[in-house]
Prior knowledge:
- The complex is a heterodimer of chains A (115) and B (110).
- Chain A has 115 residues and is mainly β.
- Chain A is built from no helices and 11 strands.
- In chain A, strands 2, 4, 5, 6, 9, 10 and 11 form a 7-stranded mixed sheet that branches. A 4-stranded antiparallel sheet of chain A has the order 1-3-8-7, with no helix packed on it.
- Chain B is mostly beta strands and 110 residues long.
- In chain B, strand 5 (32-38) and strand 6 form a beta hairpin.
Amino acid sequence: KAGVTQTPRYLIKTRGQQVTLSCSPISGHRSVSWYQQTPGQGLQFLFEYFSETQRNKGNFPGRFSGRQFSNSRSEMNVSTLELGDSALYLCASSLGERALQETQYFGPGTRLLVL
Amino acid sequence: AQRVTQPEKLLSVFKGAPVELKCNYSYSGSPELFWYVQYSRQRLQLLLRHISRESIKGFTADLNKGETSFHLKKPFAQEEDSAMYYCALSGREGGNKLVFGAGTILRVKS
Lengths: 115, 110
């Protein structure tokens, strides 16, 4: 099976712009989670989607949003970018509803640089 | 609040020496605990989870609820174990939310 894919892999934006990142889960996986990774804050949970519904949300401002499509692909959007949004954004997928005991499979990440 | 603490940023050991990567957690309920590993230029991947009670690549981890710890151990380190190790916690609220520790870099010297 193909692994989790994320596009684009690298992105450079300027402050105030918005950005959309995409994640394609492993075929058959219905849950997609997003994480932000920075040197200062480490790995932080952004949100999780299952069957097109947001199931969990981390402590991020409303500028961060996401959605999931019927084919389980997910996008996250960051509006009004700030310098502090520069990070590696990771997507992870897992099979289904009993996610607590399921393995999450991570993508390679999208590295966002905000200038 | 859920919190995971990995007190060591870097752990350096010689090949063949025992390894213990420390992880302490804070959670009011019964958590699910995981160790994830990231080798150089590879994706973050699951190493093991406490509910499986399995040994992967010679690593084991035991959940100690009294000490709220989930330390990762290996009796004899190998050079290929060099990587970044993250301890992570998932609560019983449902869903996939993982709270990660800051990570520990393990360097195994020859």
